[in-house]
Amino acid sequence: MMATLHLLSHSPFNDGRLASCLHLLGPDDGLLLTGEAVYSLREGTAPCQALELMPAANVLFALLEDLQARGMDDVPARVVAVDYPGFVELCTRFDKVNAWL
């Protein structure tokens, strides 16, 4: 099975990309939130609840710089914050990278 890293950068409050992505996640896929998508991690929101229901096998990443830029210090425990070099490394770790443009 080929594992895919899904990249989401759009706000979860404007469209259905997050829901579509979560619906299509494969068993070993990862999800990296960048840009406005890090707002998905706001506690008590529907997007945050949806992310917390992801299977444990799906790793949830967030770009550290984007979290910091938006003052998002309090994120769910399952979130793995990565910096830009970590982002590049992730893209090589997965078989495929799918950007939800």
Automatic annotation (TrEMBL):
This is Sulfurtransferase complex subunit TusB. It comes from Pseudomonas denitrificans. GO terms for biological process: tRNA wobble position uridine thiolation. It comes from the Bacteria. GO terms for cellular component: sulfurtransferase complex. Coiled coil: none annotated. SUPFAM superfamilies: DsrEFH-like. PANTHER family: PROTEIN TUSB.
